Amino acid sequence: MAKPKILLLQAGGTIGQKKGSDGVYRPSDDDYLHKIPEIHDLADITIKKIVNIDSTNMETSHRVAIARAIYENNSKYDGFVVVHGTDTMVDSAAAFNYMIQDLGKPIVLTGAQKSIYEPGSDGPNNLYYAIKAATLDLGEIVIAFGDRIVRGNRAIKVSEHGLNAFDSPRMQPVGEIGIDIMLAEHRIRRHEGKPSLFIDFDTNIAFCQQSSGTAHDALGEMVAHPNVHGIVLGAYGAGNVQDRLLADLKNATKRGKPVLVATNCQLGAADMGLYSVGSAPLKASAISAGDMTMECCVQKLMYALGKLRKNKITMAKKIAFTKKIAHTPISGDITIVSKRF
């Protein structure tokens, strides 16, 4: 039986970085995959280098290049692995969720907490199981790291130093990595999809995290800025927003700038009708993000505003259009949409 065909896309990250004489890790152009020869027992692997950067510097243009490579090579491969830095891995996983839809095959992101050039690196194990996961019955975007496989659009980075760097607190992992890989029943399985590519994200959005006790009005400045087309607002608890920001939310509505409100809690959702500090923002046309992660909210808002721009939606309909997209599940990115919305 022929081995599965896997396209491995390199995007940099800690796994391939080397320490300089000053003790600082930087991207290296040296090939490290020869250190893991056993990966070729799993699949027929084609390697394509997209970019070699620390993922802190990952931009939408880099993600577009990765998404395009996957979409254009879909018919040639059984699965895809993206080797990526850990700092913004969940952001990229969320972005791919909207850039490439209904692929029906696995897109597996992985990387390392410790350089492969250092003793005890977790890179070889992570990469081995990521490639193996890409050959299995998965039809979604996931992160394979440490001993778990988590849905990409639900993932968050939970540790800077632990080998289980990623988790999905609002849903169970879609797989466990042990002696072998055990996939969960709630995963999205392989299927004959109708892949689509959308890369015209509107990157002119801003992120604002509320701070308690401060006087500076960062949200107001963002709303007034002509180059900010939409905002993700980090809220407390059940999507609660300070009373002093209500005028800014109303101003954003007048200007046709959607404000997506996400909870800063790892568990639960932005259930904004529960308290007056949540219901008042809803009346001002703020959009609850439900149980989407902060990172997912940012990528989905850029996607929604890109769709808005492409469809030439009028200012009067911008908020409603964005709300509809935000509350429409795409590969399980949102599961709690309260009746109060």
Any descriptors?
341 residues; alpha/beta; 8-stranded mixed sheet; 4-stranded parallel sheet; 8 helices
Describe this structure in words.
With 341 residues, the protein is α/β, with parallel strands linked by helices. Helix content is 25%, strand content 22%. The strands form 5 sheets. Strands 4-1-5-7-8-9-12-13 form an 8-stranded mixed beta sheet, sandwiched between helices. Helix 1 packs across helix 2, helix 4 packs parallel to helix 5 and helix 7 packs across helix 8. The longest helix has 17 residues. The model has no long low-confidence stretch (mean pLDDT 93).
Distance between the termini: 52 Å
The value of Rg in angstroms is 21 Å
Q: Strand order within the widest sheet?
A: 4-1-5-7-8-9-12-13
The 3D shape can be described as globular
Helix-strand category: alpha/beta
How much helix, percentage-wise, in residues?
10-25%
Overall mean pLDDT: 93
Order of helices and strands: EEEEHEHEEHEEEEEEEEHEHEHEHH
How many E-type strands?
Answer: 18
Query: Sheet with the most strands?
Result: 8 strands, mixed
Number of helices: 8
Runs with pLDDT <50, length 5+?
Answer: none
